[in-house]
Model the fold of this input.
Amino acid sequence: MDRNIRDRLYIATVCAEHKEIIEKYDVGVELDQFCDPRAIDGEIAEDARVEISELLEAADRCVLHAPFSELFPAAIDPKARALAMERMHQAAGLACEYGTKKMIVHSGYVPLVFFKEWHEDRSVEFWEEFMADRDDGLVITVENVMDDEPYMMVKMMERITNPNIRLCFDVGHAACVSDVPVLEWLEVMAPYLGHIHIHNNDGTHDWHKPIFDGKVDMETFLDKVIELCDPDTTITIESLEGISSMEWLKEKGYLG
Done:
């Protein structure tokens, strides 16, 4: 098995050493500045844009993470849904501005607030509507956060007709909120995956620890990704501390 994933590997800007990692390991960057909606049109917007301009001089490729704070695509309140739609369109405009064709979005599922049937139905409607008139080639990948199993997301994808809507599997989220093993998540979601977030934890909290430090057997997981997923399925290291994760990947042969 060829383990080299360097060409589809990214480092998230939430990682403290992302600039050093981009320069040393020649990986792409996932722009997380706009996870906070204030970076789009608020008080920290200019700082975010300056930082991104510098990063794009160092990295040869990027993906963009859309905002998610207080945004619920399956919202019951029409005004809340409209806000989510507005922010997604703003983020998509930024993705095009920065030259990326892939954007990560959160599913917005909240247990005990949304019935799963409601969330599935409204999510299909929301993402199809959002992507309906786009002709810029943008691909969105819908990420699990508080989702406690993968089947609701897969059912959504079985109903979605737009090929530029895919899934993002966040391994760390699944490890701490779901009783379903991460390999089962991967096997079920693999046909629809466009992106993967890797980080680790002990199952008690979303710690975003180094990829080898936690309950997930990351070597087995990554080998399964290589086996099951399309080569265009990209991967972001989303650990808060990233150097040790890169060293581990190099030692295991994942950087070629």
Summary: The radius of gyration is 17 Å. The mean pLDDT is 96. The CA atoms of residues 15 and 240 lie 4 Å apart.
